[in-house]
């Protein structure tokens, strides 16, 4: 019997609210971006939204950052390869300084 991985409407609403709360906390520096990168709840977040949630980064800047890193903005955090993830971690560590 196949497993149904689809979420119900209520589960989707809850997931969207959780991701919005994570993005808000990142923007207001209530949570470290490196923690979010490892958070299982955030693995469904698109990389573009993750970068946009950094303080001082908007849509244009996030697009520039991802183009410089050579990473597709449509990827989700959970689907990053090890090299892509390393590039994001390096970026986050540079922004800390």
**Helix amount:** 55-70%
H and E order: HHHHH
Strand content: under 5%
The count of strands amounts to 0
What would you call the shape? globular
Which value, in Å, is the CA radius of gyration? 14 Å
Structural class by SSE content: mainly alpha
> Biggest β-sheet: count, sense, barrel?
none
The parts where pLDDT drops under 50 for at least 5 residues are none
Count every helix, treating DSSP H or I runs of 4 or more residues as helices.
5
The first-to-last residue Cα distance is 52 Å
On the 0 to 100 scale, the average pLDDT is 91
List the helices and strands and how they pair.
Elements: H1 9-27, H2 33-38, H3 47-52, H4 59-69, H5 82-96
Question: What are the key terms here?
Answer:
97 residues; single chain; 59% helix; mainly alpha
Report on the structure:
With 97 residues, the protein is mainly α. It has helices at 9-27, 33-38, 47-52, 59-69, 82-96. The longest helix has 19 residues, at 9-27. The mean pLDDT is 91.
Brief summary of the model shown:
Helix content is 59%, strand content 0%.
